[in-house]
Specification:
Blueprint: H1 3-15, H2 22-43, H3 51-58, H4 62-74, E1 78-80, E2 86-88, H5 90-103
Helix pairs in contact: 1-2, 1-5, 2-5, 3-4
């Protein structure tokens, strides 16, 4: 498990226990930001999506979509395919599933 994924996993796992820490809340809100968009990709039912398709399902313009994708790539949630499309990484899929279970 990569260090980023381990950190995100630890944040999700401890979020229910430690609600008093402002730092934890900030990390969690940033994580929820990433998971919100990753979850929409996961629920789209497609293997990979183009920037235009992502903009359409996220209801954002192309520039906003590029910014979001850049953040998701940097954090390891999505990767770019050889054809220039974007798909969830294994870590991204696992974190979306984990978040869905914890959210219940």
């Amino acid at each position: 498990m990569s260090q980023k994924v381990k950190t995100i996993y630890d944040t999700i796992a401890s979020s229910r226990v430690d609600k008093d820490s402002g730092a934890k809340d900030m990390e969690l809100s940033e994580l929820e930001y990433f998971l919100k968009y990753a979850d929409i990709i996961a629920k789209s039912g497609r293997e990979s999506l183009s920037l235009e398709e992502l903009a359409s399902i996220w209801n954002k313009n192309l520039e906003e979509t590029k910014r979001i994708v850049r953040k998701l790539r940097r954090e390891g949630f999505v990767r770019r395919t050889r054809r220039g499309r974007y798909r969830l990484t294994l870590a991204g899929r696992v974190l979306v599933k984990l978040y869905e279970r914890i959210k219940r």
